[in-house]
Amino acid sequence: MREAVFVSDDVVDKKVTADKPVDDVLVTDILSEEDRLLRPQRMNDMIGQREVFSRLQISIRAARKRGETLGHILFDGPPGLGKTTFATCIPRELGVSMQIGNGATLKSPKDVVPYLTNAEEGSVLFIDEIHRMQKSVEEFLYPAMEDFRIDLTLGEGVNARTLNIRLKPFTLIGATTRTGLISAPLRDRFQMREHLDFYNVDELAMIVKRNAVKLNIPIEDEAAYEIAIRSRGTPRLANNRLRWVRDFADAEANGRITLVVAKDALKMQGIDCLGLDGQDRKFLETILRVFGGGPVGIESVAHTMNVTPDTLIDEVEPFILRSELLLRSPRGRCLTEKGYIHLGAKAEYAQRMPLKTFFN
Ligand code: ADP
């Protein structure tokens, strides 16, 4: 039997008297003005991720046609690829309100109760970093997701009474950078699971050009491509790099972003030709210099660099693996030949590591 959840009457009171759930208000609260300007508002404004886009469109259209609540959706993928953007566009497409929570702050079931009881019919509850939710919260969510009901226990001791609350049907959208940390029972309760992959250079160049127009920045095509090439396949980085290059162009040139201006600006930020920044290169260089190119465990590299393994796993490693500079073998991380070459390491290093040895 599922564990009972104790909440004070206070929480339930709040539920009863709570105002209508927030939608765009919350979204605007957590974003800067410029971030909001750059974030697509409708799915049609989004660039790339065409397959995910098409599947979502079908589900949204079908849900609208049948007048039903959209099934729960889980987005996974590295940071900055559009999980939140999709999650905030979907309620707009459906014409429903949304609430936003974060797995890290949902420490006990009572933290999630107000979200569930405030959810309007057909509305969206978006939980970012859903892998950080406590197990007890996760288990509490199962009947909410499946049958739209929750069991609450009010009061304590002899005065305790159990309340079975029916919820209005809602759509849970979860986002995670670590799908591997999501338990199978939770994962299985999402009707759609969509993985967001890195963007190609053409897509990123389109994002850069479109956002340059929004920010009123004159930019040459080659410069937009240069920024795209050096944005690690990630729209958020493309936006950040564009804004830095704009500052550089304003301070050091006549405000126009030419290829030369873009290259100089990105060089000054230590961003190399593949788009790797100082931390990315330090990661690769640590594996090369301290651990002889690997194989080495990610924790050892993290300790040496004085960062958390999570930072490396979530933010640094995905693009480096994708770029084939590094590989994950059963014995640990190893630089690839391309990795050695990118670091300008001596030929003897590269020769020392026939690829097949890593799989022995
Ligand atoms: P995540 O939630 O995956 O970390 P976000 O959805 O917050 O990523 O995306 C970061 C930023 O990148 C957004 O604010 C938006 O400006 C931009 N962005 C993301 N995906 C797209 C897209 N498909 N098209 C255009 N811009 C995008």
Describe this structure in words.
By secondary structure, the protein is of the alpha/beta class. It has three domains: 2-195, P-loop containing nucleotide triphosphate hydrolases (Rossmann fold), CATH 3.40.50.300; 201-268, Orthogonal Bundle (Helicase, Ruva Protein, domain 3), CATH 1.10.8; 278-359, Arc Repressor Mutant, subunit A. The protein has helices at 9-17, 24-29, 33-38, 50-66, 83-94, 109-118, 135-147, 184-188, 201-214, 221-229, 235-252, 259-268, 278-289, 298-305, 309-322, 337-342, 347-351, and strands at residues 5-7, 73-76, 98-102, 124-128, 149-154, 161-166, 171-176, 192-195, 326-329, 332-335. The strands form three sheets. A five-stranded parallel β-sheet has the order 3-4-7-2-8, with helices on both faces. Strands 1-5-6 form a three-stranded mixed β-sheet. A hairpin with a 2-residue loop joins β9 and β10 (332-335). α13 crosses α14 (298-305). It starts with a strand and ends in a 9-residue tail after the last helix. The structure holds adenosine-5'-diphosphate.
